[in-house]
TrEMBL record:
Keyword Transcription regulation: no
Protein's GO biological process: peptide transport
Organism: Frondihabitans australicus
Family that this chain belongs to: Belongs to the bacterial solute-binding protein 5 family.
PROSITE patterns, sorted: PROKAR_LIPOPROTEIN (PS51257)
InterPro entries named among the record's database cross-references: Peptide/Ni-bd (IPR030678), SBP_5 (IPR039424), SBP_5_dom (IPR000914)
Species lineage: Bacteria, Bacillati, Actinomycetota, Actinomycetes, Micrococcales
Protein name per Swiss-Prot or TrEMBL: Peptide/nickel transport system substrate-binding protein
Signal peptide extent: 1-22
Subcellular location: Cell envelope
Keywords from the UniProt entry: Signal, Transport
Solute-binding protein family domain mapped to chain residues: 92-457
Signal among keywords: yes
Length: 540
């Protein structure tokens, strides 16, 4: 076996107790001291279980900060005015001290940090890893099988060697990069199996229902110590976090529905962090030197999934016509105030083998839109409902821009603004004709990005889109060797051209993070999941 060991900075840990929460009253108030940060958010997670509710900004931030993975992407300093961010091609450890790769590139051996303990005080063992993987692939509502194929398709690919060692075996050496990228993100958080096993039942054999209302069964940097539904959540630092106890000891996360109020709370100093802001408010905070906003190598895009399996958008002509009717430049300027750019590729053009030949950003052409509809036989306005999450102000503004602009092309749009819970439910049910979202691919491996929202029957295939040509191109890329190599790049290019020709999703733009930080906060790192890693924060 050839060793390619990545050493980690791991600190000694000791047992820690944690509080399982089903709906406790709040026991914390705000503070601007270095030990407590207040964060104001638009909503709260719908569940504490990733296997039942994995989507939404607040859920992603919760899972990231209360959980821990075997490895993560390395954090690197930004250049050219950009913030610190992840290096998608380099991995460092969290719950694993190091890993080795076999000479044939098929087997990855992870050496666990056996001193690590969960928030319940239980010691990390290989059994926790194996049971966690079994749960992720056994639970019917889990998105892990969909987002992981073909790189990881079964829990049986993970084997226990001894109490401190586990292996992952992949079918092809070219799968290794994407498999590592998957393991580095929250979908592969490791659970305290001993805690969850105590709450299994015949009807809930993996304790999924129990974990939906009880937090702290992970090994994360923070544990949830107080929860008041609809009001606030309080996180306390885990002093036994393997990468070191966080400098900020408490995060008070308050739900504040109005984006303007969230902005004002940072400006006044009553909050250190605000998320889901309006870009106009961000620019105002920056100009007044009231808060910091950051420029990053963003992977977040605004897009419109269109339901392709029935109804209005089953006709590809209607999808293409709408794509020409969207006012892209106006959205970039009027909604995002310079913090958005046109999108011609959903893959990173920084990959060594990136091939952008023939890929162009969508553009507005009302005459072309009208021509497509006319040629397809549409003589009266095409009516559809555009659903938007009313807690995300930039998307509400973008929806209005779209509603107004597309009338000239022959579309009649009704905006359906719903709360976060209803929005997530509708997405899962595939009941929206069209929706507007801000989203991203957490794993930045090209085949993952291309498969994420388009794998047939996937619970996150929002457009309910099926294309044998797309799947064939992705399979060819996976067979081409290095996923970031030139040979694979040609196949990824072909796959993107399928998406552009079939338009199951209208990609509108790339957007910068819509958060703001008090001027004395440091440590922000941009992550591919677009959430804030509390463990990196401190005061200047």
């Amino acid at each position: 076996m050839t060793k390619r060991t990545r050493l980690l900075a791991i600190v000694a840990v000791a047992a820690a107790g944690a509080l399982g929460l089903a709906g406790c009253s709040s026991g914390s108030s705000s503070s601007s001291s270095s030990s407590t940060f207040v964060e104001v958010t638009a909503a709260q997670p719908q569940s504490f279980s990733y296997e039942t509710s994995a989507t939404g900004y607040e859920a992603a931030e919760f899972f990231m900060n209360t959980g821990a993975t075997l490895i993560r992407n390395k954090y690197v300093a930004g250049t050219g005015g950009q913030s610190a961010h992840e290096d998608y091609n380099d991995f460092t450890g969290v719950l694993a001290k190091s890993y080795d790769v076999s000479s044939d590139g098929l087997t990855y051996t992870f050496h666990l940090d056996t001193k690590a303990r969960s928030n319940y005080g239980d010691k990390l063992t290989a059994d926790d890893v194996i049971w966690t993987m079994q749960r992720k692939f056994a639970v019917s509502t889990s998105i892990v099988p969909f987002i992981s194929a073909p790189f990881i398709t079964s829990a049986t690919q993970f084997k226990k060697v001894d109490d401190s060692t586990v292996t992952l075996t992949v079918a092809k050496a070219s799968y290794g990069y994407t498999a590592l990228s998957l393991l580095a993100n929250v979908g592969y958080n490791i659970y305290d199996a001993d805690v969850l096993k105590k709450h299994t039942t015949s009807s809930d054999p993996w304790a999924v229902k129990w974990s939906g209302t009880h937090a702290n069964f992970g090994f994360g940097a923070y544990k949830l110590t107080s929860y008041t539904p609809g009001e606030q959540m309080v996180y306390d630092a885990n002093p036994y976090y393997p990468l070191g106890e966080p400098k900020v000891k408490r995060i008070v996360q308050r739900e504040v529905a109005d984006a303007g109020q969230r902005s004002n709370l940072v400006k006044s100093g009553d909050a250190q962090i605000a998320t889901q802001l309006r870009p106009a408010d961000q620019i105002s905070l920056q100009k007044s030197k009231s808060a910091q906003i950051f420029t990053v190598p963003t992977n977040a895009y605004v897009y419109m999934p269109l339901l392709t399996s029935k109804g209005t958008f089953k006709d590809v002509n209607v999808r293409k016509a709408l794509a020409y009717a969207i006012p892209y430049d106006k959205i970039n300027s009027n909604v995002y105030h310079g913090r958005a750019t046109s999108i011609s590729t959903i893959l990173s053009d920084k990959d060594p083998g990136f091939d952008g030949d023939g890929l162009t950003a969508n553009s507005t052409d009302i005459a072309k839109a009208k021509s497509i509809l006319s040629a397809a036989g549409y003589t009266s306005p095409v009516k559809f409902t555009l659903t938007v999450n009313n807690s995300v102000p930039d998307l509400m503004e973008a929806a209005v821009q779209i509603q107004t602009a597309v009338k000239a092309a022959g579309f009649d749009v009704t905006i359906n603004a719903v709360n976060s819970a209803a929005f997530q439910t509708g997405l899962a049910d595939k009941s929206f004709e069209a929706s507007i979202q801000r989203d991203y691919a957490v794993v930045q491996s090209p085949p993952y990005v291309l498969s994420l929202f388009y794998t047939p029957k996937s619970v996150i295939n929002w457009p309910d889109f099926t294309s044998s040509e797309l799947m064939s191109d992705i399979a060819a890329g996976n067979a081409a060797g290095d996923p970031t190599g030139a040979a694979a790049g040609k196949e990824w290019n072909a796959a993107q051209k399928v998406l552009q020709s079939q338009m199951p999703t209208i990609y509108i733009n790339y957007v910068q993070p819509l958060n703001a930080f008090a001027t004395n906060v440091k440590g922000y790192v941009f992550r591919s999941d677009n959430v804030i890693d509390y463990s990196q924060l401190s005061l200047k």
